[in-house]
Write a structure and sequence with these properties.
Number of helices: 9
Structural class: alpha+beta
Oligomer: single chain
CATH superfamily of the largest domain: Umud Fragment, subunit A
Radius of gyration: 32 Å
Distance between the termini: 42 Å
Helix content: 25-40%
CATH topology of the largest domain: Umud Fragment, subunit A
Number of domains: 3
CATH architecture of the largest domain: Ribbon
CATH class of the largest domain: Mainly Beta
Shape: elongated
Order of helices and strands: HHHHEEHEEEEEEHEEEEHEEEEHEEHEEE
Length: about 425
């Protein structure tokens, strides 16, 4: 390499060496297609410049030698010289793409958290509700929010005057022995991301009196929390309405009256945490209980049965709670591993004490009340930190060793309090 303070003589010598390397490449790759006179001329000029370099000729002589060789290379260089600008750009981007794909495949893979099964450790897509139009961000604030958080606004207006009503469906959980009302499930439709890439969308309905109003959101986004925040003071559940049959539906009033064109609902969808996954460490060391845990779903048939729609080959992130040979159990709200409260991550302790937004572990499925589960060889158990809202190993079982990808390394976007080293 040539530093900024190198002498003119040294710089010219280095340029000469670079031209000689190019001449060598042209000779080796094109000697079968060059005419005998052209090949002879190329070799003659190359040898002449090589002697000048060997004899430590002055800069002016080296410059003349380079110019003479360059003239011959213009006739004989083919695609090597002179370079076409378009071809140079193509080569640059092709090499860059290969390098990026190599890094992604073997070292650090970008990953986006789609759901809130790991909340509050990681954010999936979240909704920020605005109580009134006066609270909505202006144009500048909206642009800044988009750049820093990829916040996409959703503004829903009333087609008629009346009361805003929420369509609910009643369900009974045998495992939890409770009746709950849930937001009516959305329709799943095909859509486009960034107007280009095929994707799935969810289409929910809310009502003004008896008139449905559609709310379209990304396929991984659950509108229920937005509705609870907007109309029920952020409650965790809808209030149980008057009696109606199990599985039946009802329009629950919100008490909010609107006129034609009034804002029914205003919220932004903020992107989920985007992070780099360390793909290399698990080739040398075994996964550790407490790690954030990224894996493929290719070989988890029970999960495929539960998720009837969507691709089978996906990447999930949960937290590793069990390795081969472990005996696992949930005594709400504490998770037990080999007879002792599990250790290895702050999320374990926070769930055990139901600290802050951590709900504690729920006994369900394979880890239902009074059940223990013994981990088979070459398998891992992964659970979400948000146990109340996580479709995890309790429902679909274990992760085969061959499908383990790596562990979260660094949250690089969006720019919020989660930015930094992944927990």
């Amino acid at each position: 390499m040539i530093g900024p303070f190198a002498s003119a003589q040294r710089k010219m010598r280095q340029h000469a060496v670079n031209w000689l390397e190019l001449a060598e490449k042209v000779e080796h790759y094109r000697r079968d297609v060059l005419a005998a006179e052209e090949l002879h001329e190329l070799r003659q000029e190359k040898e002449g410049l090589k002697r000048l370099v060997h004899n430590k000729a002055v800069a002016s002589d080296l410059k003349l030698g380079i110019e003479s060789l360059e003239g011959v290379l213009r006739k004989t260089g083919g695609t090597f010289y002179p370079k076409n600008t378009f071809i140079e750009y193509v080569e640059f981007f092709l090499v860059a793409a290969i390098v990026i794909l190599g890094i992604r495949a073997f070292f650090f893979q970008p990953f986006k958290i789609p759901t809130n099964s790991m909340w509050p450790s990681y954010n999936g897509m979240t909704g920020q509700v605005y109580p009134s139009t006066a609270d909505e961000p202006g144009v500048a604030a909206k642009g800044l929010r988009f750049l820093t958080q990829l916040a996409v606004p959703h503004r829903i207006d009333a087609p008629i005057a009346g009361e805003v009503r929420i369509p609910l469906i009643r369900s009974y959980s045998d495992q939890r022995d409770e009746v709950r009302d849930f937001l009516k499930p959305p329709a799943v439709v095909k859509g486009r991301k960034w107007l280009i890439f095929p994707t799935q969308k969810r289409v929910y309905e809310i009502y003004v009196d008896q008139t449905p109003v559609k709310v379209t959101v990304p396929g991984d986004f659950d509108l229920e929390k937005v509705i609870l925040d907007a109309f029920y003071n952020g409650s965790e559940r809808f209030p149980l309405s008057e009696d109606f049959p199990m599985g039946g539906r009802v329009l629950l009033g919100t008490g909010k009256k609107v006129g034609v064109g009034d804002r029914i609902l205003s919220f932004d969808i903020i992107t989920g945490d985007q992070l780099f996954v360390d793909r290399i460490s698990y080739h040398f060391v075994k996964p550790t209980v407490g790690d954030g845990f990224v894996f493929r779903t290719d070989n988890i048939p029970n999960l495929h049965r539960l998720m009837s729609s969507g691709p089978k080959e996906q990447y999930y992130i949960k937290r590793l709670v069990g390795v081969p040979g472990d005996v696992l159990e949930i005594r709400e709200p504490v998770f037990y591993r080999n007879g002792e409260p599990i250790e290895g991550a702050p999320a374990f302790d926070a769930n055990a004490t139901q600290e802050g937004n951590f709900p504690g572990y729920r006994a369900l499925g394979l880890l239902d009340t009074d059940k223990t589960f013994v981990m088979p060889p070459r398998e891992y158990m992964a659970l979400g930190d948000n146990s109340a809202s996580s479709l995890d190993g309790r429902y679909w079982g274990t992760v085969p060793e061959k499908d383990v990808i790596g562990k979260p390394l660094f949250i690089y976007y969006p720019f919020n309090d989660h930015w930094g080293v992944a927990p």
